[in-house]
Amino acid sequence: xxxxxxxxxxxxxxxxxxxxxxxxxxxxxxxxxxxxxxxxxxxxxxxxxxxxxxxxxxxxxxxxxxxxxxxxxxxxxxxxxxxxxxxxxxxxxxxxxxxxxxxxxxxxxxxxxxxxxxxxxxxxxxxxxxxxxxxxxxxxxxxxxxxxxxxxxxxxxxxxxxxxxxxxxxxxxxxxxxxxxxxxxxxxxxxxxxxxxxxxxxxxxxxxxxxxxxxxxxxxxxxxxxxxxxxxxxxxxxxxxxxxxxxxxxxxxxxxxxxxxxxxxxxxxxxxxxxxxxxxxxxxxxxxxxxxxxxxxxxxxxxxxxxxxxxxxxxxxxxxxxxxxxxxxxxxxxxxxxxxxxxxxxxxxxxxxx
Length: 354
Prior knowledge:
By secondary structure, the protein is mainly beta. The protein folds into 3 domains: 1-24 and 320-354, no CATH class; 25-180, Jelly Rolls, CATH 2.60.120; 183-308, Jelly Rolls, CATH 2.60.120. The chain has 4 helices and 26 strands. It has helices at residues 3-13, 35-39, 173-176, 188-192, and strands spanning 22-23, 49-52, 56-58, 67-70, 79-83, 91-92, 98-102, 110-118, 124-130, 137-140, 147-154, 158-162, 167-170, 182-184, 200-203, 208-212, 215-228, 237-238, 244-249, 255-261, 267-271, 275-277, 284-299, 303-308, 322-331, 341-348. Strands 15, 16, 17, 18, 20, 21 and 23 form a 7-stranded antiparallel β-sheet that branches.
């Protein structure tokens, strides 16, 4: 151990710079989150919790997978936050070091990954965000920051989506290179609301499709449904159970979503949210939008169907608990006056008061 490290431990043990508590962060730890946070499990007594805005609902069965829903398209404040079991409700970090944060199972419904930063006394400092949710967020911890609180800002409506595993760790080339796959399922023409009309379906009394200067248009005198379909006649766009399908459209619809069909083309389930988990037995996703009294030759407009792959397996949570020094000693090895054996006894606490 270097002399400066011994001096640092001595100051911590003697509470020279403050009453504590202290945190021991293992740079080799694969995940600094608590076990239930990392696994996406509803907390039992004394375990780490989540907080969310009122438009996000969360299941509450202890130790079961945490499942969240957002019934309406989120506003700019819609967030889900990981609360650490500390007085600051944030995880300890080391100033000057790089840390990464990622919740890949929510990548398809999140606008941003976020890290809120706090000083050693718990006061708020700043926050960082990343909009590229398909990959981990990486920051260098500012000098005045001792804690970070991870979270996500949501931007899609969805129902009963498990939040899955997440990771907060010291950044390494390996963990920052992780990615979750995503692809656009609609054709280039469908994305722009263009013909051919074979890539659309419409149902409803006297409802018809039309080509107006290359724009795919629709007339729905009463009520009807528009579907986006592959030009080859398949029941829908290929998907795999466990993926997430995210559909958005500019069409002035009263409702929209995705229906899932099996290999035979039979409907397995239907979602009326912007994002939906592909259910067991599904092989195809078929977007839809319903509307009433649509004037003649109304453009269908731009649309998007992103299909997000299942998240990769992440390391189990090891935690970075707050500790109080309850015992401290130094001894000199025989015959080596320049060396010291240092002993620290630590007990896990939630604050300086215990």
